[in-house]
Design a protein that fits this description.
2 copies of one chain form a homodimer. Chain A is α+β, with helices and mostly antiparallel strands. Chain A has 10 helices and 5 strands, in the order αααββααβαββαααα. A 4-stranded antiparallel β-sheet of chain A has the order 1-2-4-3, with helices on both faces. The first copy, chain A, starts with 7 loop residues before the first helix and ends in an 11-residue tail after the last helix.
C-alpha cells in the first residue's frame, strides 16, 4: 500500500510561506466569530497584489452567514469584471475591441490569481476557506442578488472564517505526474497507476469520503459495489465527470446573461 | 497629486506570507545562476497543494534560457490538462460527459490557482517571475515544441529565476474599487477618477513606462500627444484593449488545435 506522507523537507519547512501552502486544507466547519474588518481588507489587499495587472475582477462580500454554505461567516464572490475597464476606457475616449473569449481567458486568470492569494493570505492569519465551484452555474441568481451590471461574471465563491475543525492537507498527484521537462511524456500504465494509488490510498487513509458522507450516487440502475472502505478519489472524480452531463448551453446561457458572447463574433 | 504608498500596517506586516504577497513585483532581468532542482520541486509542490482537487493541469519546464523571454533561467508553461483525467477515468471504465466549456472554466481555475502559488512560493525563496500571457495565442507552437497530446491547452507561461533588479511593487486599484459588500455599486465619476489617479500617478512616480520604453503605438495616422511624462497605466491599457483587435476565431482556433471544442455541443 502506498502511504501518503510528505517528505520531511516539505512539511518541516522553515519557510512560512511554503509551510502555509503545503498545509492548506479546505474548511467546512467554522466558528461563529467572524474575521475583523481589518483582516478582511488585509486579505483582499494581498489578493490585489497578485500578478497580471489588467485587474479585470471585482470581489463581492456577504456577511450573512445564515445564507452561506457551511454557515461560513464570510462569503466572497470573485467576478471577472470587464465593465470597470470599459468605463475607464470610455472616459479616455476608447472603446474595447477585443473579443469576449480572449477577455474571459485573461479575466479568469486575473480573478483566479487574486482568489488564490486570498486563500493563502487568510490561512497565514489562521482563517480557513473553501472554494465553491457553483458560481458559474448560478451566475444569473448572483447577478440579481448583488445587482451586478452587465460585463461582470461570477467565477467562483470563497467561503471563509475561523476553522472549527482540524483536517490534514489532502493528497495530490506525485510530482512526476505533474511536472514534465522539455517534452510531455507518454502516460504509461505505470505512471497512471502510481498517480491513482497515491490519490486513492491517501484519501482512504484520511477516511475522507466516509466522514463527509460524500459518495456520488450511480445514475440509472447500476449496482454500486463500492463501500466507504474502497470508495476513494478516482472513483469519486470519475462519477463526477462521467455522470454530470452538462450541455454547453448551460454555461453559455449564464455567460450570455452576464453580457458575454463567445459563440459568434459580433464585431465581425 | 495622489501619492502611491502602502499603509504602514500593510508593508510592515510581520506576517511573512502577507509581506511576500504585498511585496510582489514582476521580474524582467535575471541572474545567470538557475534555481536548484530542489527549489524547483518545492515551488511546484507548493503549487500543487492549491485548492480545487480535480487537478486538471500539467506544468511544462524548459531550462533553455537562450530561448526564453528576458533570458530567464526557467520557463514554466502551465497547461489545462483534461487528458490525464480522461486516462484515469478510462482505466476505471468511465467516459467524460461534461462539455468542453465547463471543463475549461474549471480547468483554467485549477491551473491558475497552482500558478499563483508557484509565484508566491518562488518569491518566498527570493526567486522572481513574470507571467507571459501569450501562451493562449501560441498554443499550436507550444504543442509542437513539447509534443503535447490532445486535450492539453497551454494557458500561461511563467518565466522564473533570481532577480537582477530591484523594482518596487506596482500600483493597484483602491480597495473601494474592488471590494463591494452586498451590492455592486454604481461606478460614479468620483470612484472612477480616484481609481484612474491612483493607477496613473502611481506608475508615473515609478517612471515605469519610460524605463521599459513600453509605449504602445497609436494605429493609423492618429497623433500621439502623450510623452513619458504623462503616459501611464490607463492610457497604456486603453491602447492595449482598444487597438488589439483580435477576432474570436484566433483563440477558438488555438483551442481547437488542442482538442477543445466550445462552439458546438458535439454530444447533443
Amino acid at each position: 500500500m502506498y502511504v501518503f506522507t510528505y517528505k520531511k523537507s516539505d512539511i518541516m519547512s522553515e519557510n512560512h510561506v511554503i509551510h502555509t501552502m503545503l498545509n492548506h486544507k479546505s474548511v467546512r466547519k467554522y466558528k461563529n466569530e467572524p474575521p475583523t474588518q481589518e483582516e478582511i481588507e488585509q486579505i483582499v489587499r494581498a489578493g490585489q497584489q497578485a500578478p497580471f495587472v489588467s485587474q479585470l475582477y471585482s470581489v463581492l462580500l456577504s456577511r450573512n452567514r445564515e445564507k452561506h454554505p457551511f454557515k461560513a461567516p464570510l462569503m466572497f464572490t470573485i467576478c471577472v469584471d470587464i465593465q470597470k475597464m470599459e468605463k475607464i476606457m470610455d472616459k479616455k475616449g476608447w472603446k474595447m475591441v477585443t473579443n469576449d473569449l480572449s477577455l474571459l481567458l485573461f479575466g479568469i486568470q486575473d480573478a483566479a490569481y487574486m482568489a488564490q492569494n486570498m486563500v493563502t493570505a487568510g490561512e497565514s492569519m489562521g482563517i480557513g476557506s473553501v472554494f465553491l465551484g457553483r458560481a458559474i452555474y448560478i451566475a444569473e441568481s448572483i447577478k440579481k442578488e448583488y445587482q451586478l451590471p452587465d460585463r461582470v461574471f461570477p467565477l467562483v465563491q470563497l467561503a471563509m472564517g475561523y476553522p472549527d475543525e482540524d483536517e490534514p492537507p489532502r493528497p495530490r498527484y506525485p510530482l512526476d505526474f505533474v511536472l514534465f521537462e522539455n517534452k510531455y511524456p507518454e502516460l504509461t500504465d505505470d505512471l497512471i497507476d502510481k498517480a491513482v494509488s497515491m490519490m486513492d490510498e491517501g484519501y482512504l487513509q484520511q477516511d475522507y469520503y466516509r466522514k463527509l458522507n460524500a459518495k456520488i450516487k450511480l445514475s440509472g440502475d447500476k449496482e454500486d459495489r463500492f463501500t466507504y472502505d474502497d470508495y476513494s478519489w478516482t472513483e469519486h472524480i470519475s462519477r463526477k465527470w462521467g455522470q454530470w452531463y452538462d450541455s454547453i448551453e448551460t454555461p453559455l446561457k449564464q455567460l450570455e446573461t452576464c453580457g458575454f458572447h463567445i459563440v459568434t463574433d459580433e464585431e465581425d
